[in-house]
Amino acid sequence: MQIGFGVSFYGFFVFAAVWCALYLMWATRTASSGRDGPGTTDTADTADSTDDDR
Amino acid sequence: MTADGVVFGTVVATYLVAVFGVALWAYRRTRSEADFLVAGRSIGPWVGGATLAATQLSSGTVVGTVGYHYLAGVSWAWIWPGVWTGWLVSALWIAPKLRAFGGVTVPDFIATRYASERARVLSAVLIALAYMFFLSAQYRAGGIIFEAIFGWPFTSGVLAVALITLLYTWMGGMRSSVYTDFLQAGVMVCAFCVAIPLLLRHTGGFTLMGELLSGIDPRVTGWYFGRSEIVAFSLAFALSMAVAPYQIARFYAMRDVKTVRLAIGISYVFQALMASAVLITGLGMRALFPALPSADLASSALALYVLAPLAGSLLLVGALSAIMSTCDSVMIVCAASVSHDLYGKIFRPDASESRKLAVNRRSVLILGTIPLLFTFMDLGLVQEIVVDYAKLIACFFFVPVVLGLNWRRGTTSAAMTSMVGGFVGFLVLRFGFAEPLLGIDPIFPGIVTSFVLYVGISLVSRPVPQSALKPFFEEPIRAIGSTP
Question: What is the chain B residue with the closest CA to A33?
Answer without folding.
Answer: B258
